[in-house]
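Record type: ASSEMBLY
Status: queued
Input:
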Amino acid sequence: MLLLTGTFLWGKTISVCSDCAVRFIKEGVEMAADFDTLLIKKGTYKEYNILIDKPLTLLGENYPVIDGGEKGEIIRIVSDHVTVDGLFLINVGTSYTTDYAAIRVVKSENFLIRNVVLEKLFFGIYLEKSNNGRVYHNKIIGDAKDEYNSGNGIQLWYSHNVVVDRNIVQGVRDGIYLEFSDHITINNNQSTNNLRYGLHFMFSNDDTYTNNTFQNNGAGVAVMFSKRIVMKGNTFRQNWGSAAFGMLLKEINDAEIIDNTFEENTIGINIEGSNRITYKGNDFINNGWAVKVLGACYSNSFEKNNFLYNSFDISYNSKLNDNKFENNYWSGYTGYDLDKDGIGDVPYRPVKLFSYIVNRTPETIVLLRSLFMDIIDFSEKVSPVFTPDNLMDAMPLMKKTE
Amino acid sequence: MLKILKYSFYDLMRSRWSYVYFLFYLALGFVLLFLNHDLSKAVITLMNVIIILVPLISTIFGVMYFYNSKEFTELLLAQPLKRSSIFLGQYFGVAGSLTLSLVLGLGVPFMLYGLFRSDVIWDFSLLLVTGAFLTMIFTVLAFNIALANENKIKGFGYSVLMWLFLAVIYDGLFLLSLIIFEEYPLDSFSLAATTFNPIDLSRTLILLKLDISALLGYTGAVFKSYFGTDLGLFLSLGMLVLWTVLPIWLLTYKSKRKDF
Amino acid sequence: MIQIENLHKKFGKNQVLSHLDLQIDEGGIFAVLGPNGSGKTTLIKSILGMVVPNKGNLKVLGTSIRKKWKYRQEIDYLPQIANFPGNLKVKELVRMIKDLRQKPSKEEELIKRFGLEPYLDKKLATLSGGTKQKVNIVLTFMFDSPLIILDEPTTGLDPASLLKLKELIMQEKDKGKTILITTHIMQFVEEMADEIVYLLEGNIYFKGTIHELMAKTGQNDFEHAIAAISTHTTDA
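Status: finished
Output:
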């Protein structure tokens, strides 16, 4: 309690509890003056549609429970400079017409939402046309079963310059969802077991996400129709299924994908119509397809990545290639390095003929690692007929890059 | 039967070929590990090698042993011994010594490289189990072929053809039929087709370990329940057992009716 | 000792034995004779159960041998061509056969009799044909079984060993055993056999003593008598 009075020294503190003078949060908000702190003590508060319309700090002591009783939204912030800290919000109402959220921030600036735990929710934290805020160290545990009647964990809509850091999101539709939101920083979050995507960008530019973990989601991260996204140091694991990928890129230009780890995904990265992307220092380990390229993708470069034990390293569906592969390490590489410069003396062709056959007739996947397939792949390697003949890493590394 | 097994086994343990086989695997294990310094990669290479080489070696060795021990067999036939125990004893002697060579030959280098402290131990065990099954299956198939053919050259020819068929041609025909009938739902067919070939069955077992991420990319519900649960593992193992037991039964059946 | 009724055996299209009936009583030496391809070996192998007859009934020691194997405990068999697993030593082979049969044996006496002591630690693959045959003889005679079947026992033996073999056979006969012999050496037959079974085109052409045979053919020399049977039939 003492700690937080530091933020707005000039405010006073109003305590809320079942045997305090103020017994309800709504009551406290009404009574409070700008920049006051509402200290909500341990207990259960059956309230919903709490409207915060002035700069306030809502501080929970020992995680008081605010039970929305499935009636609608729980907290709506419409004022700048609001802090929500240390609350446990449950039972958000579900509706097919209104996106009820546990906490909704509308057209407000400089907000801070932290240490909040959300359970039994529809939408979790919903930022609407709100800029310059922070969503920090929250835990969102959903129990979503179907996509059509579930919401997203953290949603940003027309919101800019927001930091989303150290949150845990699981069991919702999209863990974190961005639409028309620029200059967002998403760091150190763990988005797991979500129905659709761990992280989802639509029409959002100049965003950065680093050091996040995306595991066992319908698909890890979907980046669509966005520009200049930086993706660094993230881990994408075990996104398994027929349309599952660690990362989906659709109509993305000028992005940087650096030092990420893609492990045990059906498809590590699925790329459609994306140009001028730099892939560097990523580890692709034990994926079904490390990189699957669909449609026209131009001027992408893959450099210094590790491709380790993937069933297929690269798969293309066309004979054209305008992408550069250089200095990667491929565990499937069988060449030699006579001049001992650490670079293989024969080029590596990462696209197997078999990946074409599987694209065409998916059932043939059961013939993976068959000697017959190896023979076919070998003959294709010697004289490419179906695969782009300039698609190769002319300078494959002999050792993994660190 | 156990006595025959014992003598066959001793006889083989003393023959040059068991050592050649053992040393081959030992060398393979060491070379793979030496070249890669990487257990996971060595295991993957080894898996590819095992599903092709183990059947070939077992086939050739089985046929060779059967023809070479013709005298031994005839000596035994005049003794108060059951026919089935003579042939089963010899079969288990050969299959046992081959399996032992495989397990020791590969086990020793991998153990020295710290297998027990690594997480590929399960992959490796699966590899050995698969290798053992393939040895048992292809040795008994070879025995059956040799029993049916008095002519050594013919017996050798048929055995190698059988290997070639199961290792390569079968998959070629399989692929062709999948592509020709690609408009039809093929997932049940393709799974069934793998069970009719012990090499494909072993490959499926290995795929379940190494390529599960890719296998789960296919949409069919049958695929999903086959590869997504333990069903595929148990079914494949069960079929491998059948592939071992049925030819062994055939061997005893045929041997009882054969004239010497 | 042995009863055979209506025995048939075909190898492919080749009818080797047809309608063969044969009764062999207990005790004595029986020589099974006949031209090449007359079915001698097939007959013997049928008795041993190595060849499975197409039709017919075969009894050894009073019981049918169909699908049985334990009766072979009562038979000592000397195969025609002494083929042994080459990797084994003589000693080991003897030990193995003893182990397999689990019967009292007198191999030491036989080894001494045929002078095989120096070869005991040699591998079978390194032995000469004659020595192999001696080993073969030891393996056959070391057990005490009521029925002994010898397929070309004289092959490769030097005169001294042949003499020893004859002695051995006579000894066994004196114990009241039944001994079946096939051979091409007529002198050997004349000397040893109590009765002759002559096979021709898969059937018993003649069965009786040497005297009966000579009486039948009107020859007073055994070898001529045998020759006469063969020509007689080709004439007929």
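Annotation: The longest helix of chain A spans residues 371-382.
Annotation: The longest strand of chain A covers residues 101-106.
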